Amino acid sequence: MSQILIRFVVRGLVVSVFALLGDLLKPKSFAGLFGVAPSVALATLTLTVAKEGASYAALEARSMIAWSVAFFVYASLVSWVMMRHKPKALWATICSIPVWLCVAFGLWYLWLG
Amino acid sequence: MQVKIDPSALERTKWHEYVVRFVFGGFITAAAGILAKEYGACVGGLFLAFPAIFPASATLIEKHEKEKKQEQGFDGTERGREAAGVDAAGSAMGSIGLLFFALFVWQFMPRYNDWMVLAGATSIWFGFGIAMDTSKANLMGLNGTH
What we know:
The complex is a heterodimer.
Chain A: H1 2-24, E1 25-26, H2 28-31, H3 39-52, H4 54-84, H5 89-95, H6 97-112
Chain B: E1 4-5, H1 8-12, H2 15-39, H3 41-46, H4 54-71, H5 77-108, H6 114-140
């Protein structure tokens, strides 16, 4: 339980720092890079390397490739919808998550499964 | 492209907005760890960078841009949503950099020093993101105007 709590705090902090950087930087298209920063990946991989070893971390990184493609599709869709139809950002981002899930798990099934 | 630091963004962000990001980020990444433990590294890896802070960040950008315009006497709704859309486009470009980050870690982690590989992969992601954004700005004739 304490291990989960430590992970929660460490990762929450890392994600918050990257988000803060995204707030501070202009233009917004550059700041957007920090929205998809490997903050989560870095925090998780660092702990994984320390606990499970490099081979296990490499396996996780391989899955991240599928995730990256899925996120590219997701973020492009959100951007297109926001620019063209201008809905509320919360709706556009939440409603597009199923697209991310479909692409991510589709790739996982075809390539890694 | 001219990258600038805008400290006024810190004044516009309220403390509870930081808390939301902290909880979102912590929860999703802890969940990724639990999934990896339960179902293996492949499934866990998929969630390593789940769009954890994206909805929260996009909402905050929309809100802050809207407030900025309202201070100038405009409605600001449309401007706020456009800003969130531009941020999403930046994130899409960043995800291509992240793909190379993952490729680098996957290929080199088992053979070289772990921390050097992580540092190298992060540099690749960052450099790639800057290169992509600069190319886009040049193509569109933008120089930090958005």
